[in-house]
Design a protein that fits this description.
single chain; alpha/beta; 6-stranded parallel sheet; 18 strands; about 40% helix; disordered C terminus
């Protein structure tokens, strides 16, 4: 039975089905930590080495499981460190609860140690945000925090003074209107179905369309069968924003793969040529990759009404759950006999896959980063869980690793933060022991939170960390050159011996430098039990080529080379070689 305010907090979390919390102990949360110790058989505490990683792990836990992710940090700096991972959850629409401590309630606002009002600091990131005012306030607030995070798919935050955490429940004076047990852990679900007139309007638009593209994002991850059925009936290629990579298997004949800067040429060309667009569960942020406004009629299926028509003018809005809406829409759709638009996209996709295979099997040295992703793709199980970081490595995973079977994939989508890949993989291994878990990360991102290698070892997580080592902040380097026409500046990284570091943490470690040995070494590494790091040394001058290079980008790139970019001749030679390979 709960005896302290912290006990009430922990018991309420257990009632809501929370079985895992990520965080670091601290003197601002001592009462909560003690309650977690007493309930360790019912709820596990995963100790991380940096609070930012705790928030990333909570976000990834929510992404991979569909459940509430929870992180815990102490007062002041501990809570502050959570923010980057919490913004990752906010921008990707994941239910996460952050719990933080405050200093003694009667010393707040007196410049005491760690006197940071975290509830005020967290105002922008949260859908629910509350400071607990006493032991009788805990249950109400915790119930509402869990409910709101799940219902609104966002971040909830609870903060409580350290002295209050250990206060006896019996000592708390309940107000006369705060009746005991007036809240519950029942989660109400709405029907999530659109209005009849919008369904009819959407069906009419889609039936009239002749060149239809389906854009299926993270909100359609649970609706694979429905997305495929609708696309088949419409004769529509399925393009996938990065967070929607798992919606449809990459080898399915209806998909043209990714879209945007990391996407495929067939997806971009389909979006450029379409007359009708069906957006399912996506608010893909890069407006320049959508059809030009006015070019296409648009139907959008979206659970959150405020996200309707964010990126493209919508002609019919179907507010509701993707799977349920598609089930209602499908019987109203005509089978499109003309498959020419789809067949053009399929032909383009065949050419694209041949190009990706050619790039992924090159034997040049230094080794091309695509080779590592290409070889990894052959070795992944059909239920593997993949995490990647932000940078050029995202391009290689997006284009060279195929989703199949029950594989899951995620990354930091809309925040696009570095350093998330390793914590994501650790969270996946915590949630799904026994499944293959692989993080594909860059040397820039890994050095930011390499301390989390210790977390993997502490809990003997069966994670495989592949670090693409090119000693540069590659994505920034190419953005400086291609989008701005500036010489590369401040992007070169001090080389790091990741194998030595990994072994120091207790990892098994491997190095790949020879492309012809890449597959064999990866196979050995993936078969090695426990935490393993693979350092892949690659060509720093290999560009993450966009699906189509326009004249403006080419001019900016030429300007950059002429303006004093280091290694200009090597970069030009690499890019010229890639361009020739595309043409022939």
């Amino acid at each position: 039975m709960a005896t302290t305010a912290a006990d009430v907090l922990v018991d309420t979390l257990i009632d809501w089905g929370v079985d895992t919390i990520f965080g670091i102990p601290g003197d601002g949360i001592n009462g909560i930590i003690e309650s977690l110790r007493q309930k360790k058989d019912e709820i596990r505490f995963i100790q991380v080495r940096h609070e930012e990683a705790a928030a990333f792990m909570a976000c990834a836990y929510a992404k991979y499981t569909g459940r509430l992710g929870v992180c815990l940090a102490t007062s002041g700096p501990g809570g502050i460190h959570l923010l980057n991972g919490l913004y990752d959850a906010k921008l990707d629409g994941q239910p996460v609860l952050a719990i933080t401590g405050l200093q003694f309630h009667d010393l707040l606002h007196t410049y005491t140690q760690q006197d940071v009002e975290l509830d005020k600091l967290f105002m922008d990131v949260c859908v629910y945000n509350s400071r607990i005012m006493g032991p009788t306030h805990v249950e109400n607030v915790t119930e509402l925090a869990c409910r709101t995070a799940l219902a609104y798919r966002g971040v909830a935050h609870i903060t409580m003074s350290v002295d209050m955490q250990s206060q006896s429940v019996s000592s708390g004076k309940r107000s006369k209107r705060n009746l005991p047990n007036h809240v519950s852990d029942l989660m109400a679900e709405s029907a999530h179905v659109p209005a009849e007139d919008q369904l009819a309007r959407a069906a009419a638009i889609l039936n009239e369309g002749r060149k239809i593209v389906v854009l299926a994002g993270r909100g359609a991850l649970h609706a694979r069968d429905e997305v495929i059925a609708v696309a088949e009936r419409l004769g529509a290629p399925i393009a996938k924003p990065l967070l929607g990579k798992g919606v449809v298997p990459d080898e399915h004949p209806l998909t043209t793969g990714g879209t945007g800067l990391l996407g495929t040429r067939p997806s971009q060309e389909a979006l450029e040529d379409c007359d009708t667009l069906l957006i399912i569960g996506s608010s893909f942020p890069y407006i320049e990759y959508y059809p030009k406004p006015g070019q296409a009629q648009c139907v959008q299926i979206e659970l959150d009404p405020k996200r309707v028509s964010l990126r493209y003018p919508v002609d019919a809005a179907l507010v509701g759950d993707s799977a349920r809406v598609l089930q209602l829409l499908l019987p109203r759709l005509d089978y499109h006999q003309d498959r020419s638009f789809l067949e053009t996209a399929q032909s383009g996709m065949q050419d694209w896959r041949e190009l990706m295979s050619e790039r992924g099997t090159r034997t040049d040295t230094p080794m091309k980063p695509q080779v590592v992703a290409h070889e990894l793709n052959k070795l992944l199980s059909d239920d593997a869980i993949l995490a990647t970081d932000s940078g050029t490595i995202t391009s290689w995973i997006a284009r060279h690793v195929d989703i199949r079977g029950n594989m899951m994939f995620s990354c930091s989508g809309n925040l696009a933060t570095m350093a998330c890949g390793l914590p994501y993989a650790n969270a996946a291994a915590v949630a799904y022991p026994g499944r293959q878990v692989v993080a594909f990360v860059g040397d820039g991102g890994l050095t930011m939170l390499c301390c989390e290698l210790a977390t993997a070892v502490k809990y003997n997580l069966d994670v495989k960390i592949i670090v693409i080592k090119n000693n540069t902040l590659g994505q920034i380097k190419w953005e400086q050159m291609v989008f701005l026409g500036n010489p590369e500046y401040a992007c070169e990284l001090q080389p790091v011996d990741f194998n030595t570091i990994a072994r120091g943490f207790g990892f098994q470690a491997f190095t790949i430098e020879d492309p012809q040995q890449c597959g064999a070494i990866l196979q050995q590494a993936l078969a090695t039990p426990g935490p393993v790091l693979i350092e892949a040394v690659v060509d720093p001058h290999e560009p993450p080529m966009p699906p189509k290079v326009d004249a403006k980008q080419a001019a900016k790139f030429a300007q950059s080379l002429a303006s004093g970019t280091p290694n200009a001749s090597k970069i030009a030679l690499t890019v010229a070689s890639n361009t020739v390979r595309e043409i022939i």
